[in-house]
Amino acid sequence: MLSRIDHVGIACRDLEAKIAFYESTFGLTVASIEVNEAQGVREAMLQVGTDRPGSSYVQLLEPLRPDTPVGRFLERRGEGVVPASSRCRRSAHRAGPACGPVSRP
To answer: Which CATH number fits domain 2-88: 3.10.180.10, 3.40.190.10, 2.40.160.40, 3.30.70.420?
Structure first.
């Protein structure tokens, strides 16, 4: 069963500019900023709403290089939403995950 949306990732070319936009437009607050070398991105997690268990986030992703997955996404599609991440509960019967990967059309 789907229990909540954990975060929505948004590919961007200028992380600092997008942070300022989401702070001023939607009142989001920065929870963390880090470099993820393994994925080739600088990322910022912006919290939606108040600090409470089960919070949701907007994850801004700026590629470190053009040959990364986010860099290629930006080249093909421009700035925008990348696949979402959700939380789900496993079936009580342990027959497998209650929700699986989400595919994009």
So the answer is: 3.10.180.10
In three-state secondary structure terms, 23 is helix
The whole-angstrom separation of Cα 66 and Cα 76 is 11
The one-letter amino acid at 45: M
- What type of residue sits at position 40? G
What does pTM read for this prediction?
A: 0.75
b/e per residue 62-87 (b: at least 16 CB within 10 A) = bbeeeebebbebbeeeeeeebeeeee
Q: Is the pLDDT of residue 100 over 80?
A: no
